[in-house]
């Protein structure tokens, strides 16, 4: 595990010296996110420590992606939108386009996903995320190890917890699909 964290810190220092619009930045950033996925949990507990998730959004929170201590969280603000990591970025798209971008991101990150009912137990050793859409935006919640659900409200510094999975969240986001996701592990 120490070896992976060493790589994360090394990539962070390399990325911080490169302009964000360079192709090399994108490739290093993608590698950085893949490493963060490796050290994240397949059974996250509720965490409302917004400092841990500063500049992340609901997508990064659902995937339990956060920067390790000592690394500026600014690096997370770019790119954790559906389809970004797979170069299938979706803005104001249809449900099908968002789901395609999500599937491609999961392929890029080596995350397995399985459609599942929110009230059934996980069958593959992962945890559930819920995907929502409004008329022009997406949103995610994740299920925590205690069975509750939580989400980060966009880039705001607020994390909310629910006892059960709501069908509508934030006023106009409708539940589209629940997935069990299984992230790769450090071997």
Q: What's the gist of this structure?
A:
The protein has one domain. It is built from four helices and seven strands.
What global shape is seen? Answer: globular
What integer value in Å does the Rg equal? Answer: 16 Å
- Total number of helices: 4
Helix/strand structural class: alpha+beta
SSE series: HHHHEEEEEEE
Number of domains: 1
Into which percentage range does the β-strand content fall?
A: 15-25%
Mean pLDDT: 88
Distance between the termini: 8 Å
Largest sheet: 7 strands, antiparallel
Task: Say how many strands there are.
Answer: 7
Q: Considering DSSP H and I runs of 4 or more, what fraction of the residues is helical?
A: 25-40%
Low-pLDDT sequence parts: none
Task: List descriptors.
187 residues; alpha+beta; 7-stranded antiparallel β-sheet; globular
Describe the structure.
With about 190 residues, the protein is an alpha+beta fold. It has one domain (about 1-180). About 25% of the residues lie in helices and about 20% in strands. It has 4 helices and 7 strands. The protein has helices at about 1-15, 25-40, 60, 95-110; strands at about 110-115, 125-135, 140-145, 150, 160, 170, 175-180. Strands 1, 2, 3, 4, 5, 6 and 7 form a 7-stranded antiparallel beta sheet that branches. Helix 1 packs antiparallel against helix 2.
Q: How is the topology of this model organized?
A:
Blueprint: H1 2-15, H2 23-39, H3 58-62, H4 95-109, E1 112-115, E2 127-133, E3 138-143, E4 149-152, E5 159-162, E6 168-169, E7 173-182
Antiparallel strand pairs: 1-7, 2-3, 2-7, 3-4, 4-5, 6-7
Helix pairs in contact: 1-2
């Amino acid at each position: 595990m120490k070896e992976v964290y060493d790589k994360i810190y090394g990539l962070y220092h390399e990325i911080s010296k490169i302009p964000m619009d360079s192709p090399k930045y994108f490739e290093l950033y993608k590698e950085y996110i893949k490493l963060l996925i490796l050290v994240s949990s397949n059974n996250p507990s509720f965490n409302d420590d917004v400092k841990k998730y500063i500049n992340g959004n609901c997508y990064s929170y659902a995937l339990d992606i956060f920067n390790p201590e000592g690394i500026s969280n600014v690096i997370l603000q770019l790119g954790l939108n559906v389809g970004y990591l797979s170069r299938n970025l979706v803005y104001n798209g249809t449900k099908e386009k968002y789901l395609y971008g999500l599937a491609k991101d999961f392929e890029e990150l080596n995350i397995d996903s399985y459609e599942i009912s929110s009230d059934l137990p996980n069958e593959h050793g992962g945890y559930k995320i819920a995907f929502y859409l409004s008329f022009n935006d997406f949103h995610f919640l994740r299920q925590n190890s205690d069975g509750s659900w939580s989400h980060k409200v966009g880039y705001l510094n607020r994390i909310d917890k629910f006892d059960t999975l709501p069908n509508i969240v934030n006023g106009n986001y409708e539940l589209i699909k629940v997935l069990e996701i299984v992230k790769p592990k450090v071997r």
